Amino acid sequence: MFVPGNAYIEEWSYAEKEAPTVNKRTFTYKIVEGCAIKADVHSIDEGAGKPAIVLIHGGCLIMGGRTENEILVEMLTKAGYTVISIDYRLAPETKLEGILEDLRDAFRWVRKDGEDLLNINPNRMGAMGCSAGGYLTLMSGFMVDTPPKVLVSFYGYSDVNGAWYSKPDPFYRRQPLVAESIARAAVGTNPISETVGPHDRHLFYLYCRQNGLWPKEVTGYDPEKEPRKFDRFSPVRNVTEQYPPTLLLHGDRDTDVPYAQSVAMSKKLGEAGVDHDLITAFGKGHGFDDVGFRDPAVAVALNRVLVFLKQRM
Description:
- The protein has 313 residues and is an alpha/beta fold.
- It has a single domain (2-159, 232-312), classed as Alpha/Beta hydrolase fold, catalytic domain (Rossmann fold), CATH 3.40.50.1820.
- Helix content is 33%, strand content 20%.
- The protein contains ten helices and nine strands.
- It has a nine-stranded mixed beta sheet with strand order 1-9-8-7-6-4-5-3-2, sandwiched between helices.
- The radius of gyration is 19 Å and the shape is globular.
């Protein structure tokens, strides 16, 4: 069951739309130390001035890539948006400051070349992401040069050095413990911007969660000794009345990113008077949207996303 915080005045039926033929183009928007950072641009036609969504993948900032989120790509292109699915350098080879630099550069690229190269209207641009992508979406609300007009965060985190990340996690401690040597062997030293094919990087993430090391490994700072270093990395600490309209979606049984992360962000947005909503997926866990429109309850939530976007873009 999904419960939005506010009433919606319009409904959009995804099922009424015929399946489109989606065109995909791949661009390299940045090269750092020999690491090419790419973006896939999805659209159903080449019409000019279309609204766009920058789609940001998850993977705890450690793994994943732009080819994920196929359900969201289909949903958004079917609704008439151009979708720009971006890569960024991954941790721990690249620390969070570098990842956020990539995020800023991706938005700069879209705004600079979007109208001529991508056939979009850069002034009608939103951001969306799941998990770590939801976190980066929330970060884009205050740290890119010109923030997106609207943000949609699926189970993203708002505070990166809370106890849920900086202390050993009971849920992950119930899984077989990963030795440090195995965890370190799963990652490297040279920067990478996507993981392709079979990989064991999840072992590094598991090791970090089992030992409360994720904030330190991803940022390079110790949350116990340098807590103020995390202020600029935490969206909940950077909300002002200028923050973009924001939609938060989160399952109340999420064992990876606590539901409380979105509740706290929603509260802070409300205190600042920011247009926002929180959709609670009762009984759902992390990645609840992976089933897409096959689940009627998830279909309702996804349609709410489309309504939120349409009303604000």
